[in-house]
Design goal:
Two copies of one chain form a homodimer. Chain A has helices at 18-27, 39-47, 67-75, 110-114, 117-122, 134-144, 155-161, 216-225, 259-271; strands at 7-12, 31-36, 53-60, 64-65, 78-87, 91-94, 105-108, 127-130, 149-153, 164-167, 177-185, 202-209, 231-239, 242-253, 274-282. Chain A has 287 residues and is an alpha/beta fold. In chain A, the strands form three sheets. In chain A, strands 1, 2, 3, 4, 5 and 11 form a six-stranded mixed beta sheet that branches. In chain A, α1 links the parallel β1 and β2. In chain A, α8 (216-225) runs antiparallel to α9 (259-271). Chain A is globular, with a radius of gyration of 21 Å.
Chain lengths: 287, 287
């Protein structure tokens, strides 16, 4: 009996990162996860065919967008093939035997530290120590066993590395979700549209730039508004090398090949200096 | 002879931070600078009248917006009273006697580390160590004198703390500017409009939210477009507690009290769920 070769999927962070939960939600458990240290490494691995797919965070409901990934979406030849929202819950994790009263330093990713400000305000003895990754901070304290340090990460990270959860749900706001994109190479054959129960709504993501003249963005958005296409997200990013000029990333509800969408993109092409479709994918409900 | 009491101005970071250069550009050298550890502390000090003014970074031409400060602008009762752009140039700084070949760890603010990726790609032996502040990382290595560590910060920070510059202009892109806002309390008497040489252009900054319905943002932007008001910036921020709904921050070229601006704001008030004017200030040319 031949064992089916598992699809390799890249993500940033150590095993136990929230991105790994996003991989599970998007592709199920039967994949081989490939942890990478930096977001750029994830895109490079996908472009070089070291992995078949990649999963990256694109925005958090509290912290806002992951700008670096918007930039990578533009510079690598990839397409967005799916999205999912992961509920983010932060836990204070220490090596077994280290009690809460001994903790003085708390390691985690700066975004996670910043989402637990009430906890730190109530515990002024705790110093926040920025680390490159949430799950990685658990791995580090379990390896180095400093007697006065803890980490903030997911419950899964505590389980994987054998840490003990001292406090649960440290996050200031329980409505803390991160939206992730599933990426594939642009050239790879499109998957057959996934079967979803009930009516599937589709999202299309595009990026465009305009000259900095009065009403330019307004005219570009008219391409969508005149066709009743609902924008779910607009994000501006500075254009490298052109200080204070901007790229716009827009998500709207429609299949890319629907007539209204095709007309809108045709219209937008007349108005924008630059336009690229980043992907079309089933919208995830909820969050 | 009585010594004139200097105006106290808060900023985030240690002495030598880029924010201190912004203070000098906005208010000259005759002020007392009050360094704060966190952005929130700067806003709290201003609100509590510990300082008369504050200077905060709002966006970088490469890294994008400083989201946390957009949130604070909404939650504190302050107004934007000025803007300035500071050219960001990063230097590798070590204690005197530590040669480049000994360096293994480089401390700095994550945004600064992220703006020197080419330098790190060419020097793969160097580990990037995130620190809460650029100038603070210089202060730390000068106090602790680790034999294998350097910091990335401004030339002014090297001078203040006695560090030696080993490499200059590490930044990937020379067109690296940060835009800073001068803030004052909303209630404080408006300054007389500053005299500027030549014609002064004014900017107004507002924040608004809309329901998430098709064309809502488009209709809001029509309030500006129909009056030929030029937007120089639009930024969306997630609404806390309402996942995937957004606030919009808009800057446009006009005095807030000009007729077109007043008409636009009246129109926008009809369309938006929420609207606040954050300030009106002379536009800085250049960058």
């Amino acid at each position: 009996m031949t064992k089916k070769k598992l699809e390799r999927v890249g993500f940033q962070g150590e095993l136990g990162a929230f991105s790994q939960e996003a991989v599970r939600q998007l592709l199920g458990a039967s994949v081989e996860v490939v942890p990478c240290q930096r977001f750029e490494d994830v895109f490079v691995k996908l472009a070089k065919k070291n992995v078949a797919a990649a999963v990256i965070p694109i925005e958090n409901s509290l912290a806002g967008s992951v700008h670096e990934n918007y930039d990578h979406l533009l510079h690598f030849d990839v397409r967005i093939a799916g999205e999912t929202n992961v509920r983010i819950s932060h836990n204070l994790i220490a090596p077994p035997g280290v009690p809460f009263r001994k903790i003085r330093r708390v390691y985690s990713h700066p975004v996670a530290l910043n989402q637990c400000l009430d906890f730190f305000a109530h515990n002024p003895k705790l110093e926040r120590e920025p680390f490159y990754d949430t799950a990685g901070s658990v791995k580090m304290i379990m390896e180095q066993r400093p007697p006065d340090a803890a980490a903030i990460a997911s419950a899964v990270a505590a389980e994987i590395y054998g840490g003990r959860i001292l406090r649960r749900s440290l996050e200031d706001d329980r409505r803390n979700f991160t939206r992730f994109f599933l990426l594939r190479r642009s050239g790879d054959a499109k998957q057959a549209p996934t079967r979803h129960k009930g009516r599937t709504e589709w999202k299309t993501s595009v990026v465009f730039s305009t000259r900095n003249i009065p009403g330019a963005l307004f005219r570009c958005l008219s391409a969508f508004a005149l066709r009743d296409l609902n924008l779910t997200k607009i994000e501006s990013r500075p254009l490298r090398g052109k200080p204070w000029e901007y790229l716009f990333y827009v998500d709207y509800l429609s299949r890319v090949d629907a007539p209204a969408s095709q007309n809108a993109l045709g219209h937008l092409r007349e108005l924008a200096d630059f336009l690229r479709v980043l992907g079309c994918y089933p919208m995830e409900r909820g969050a």
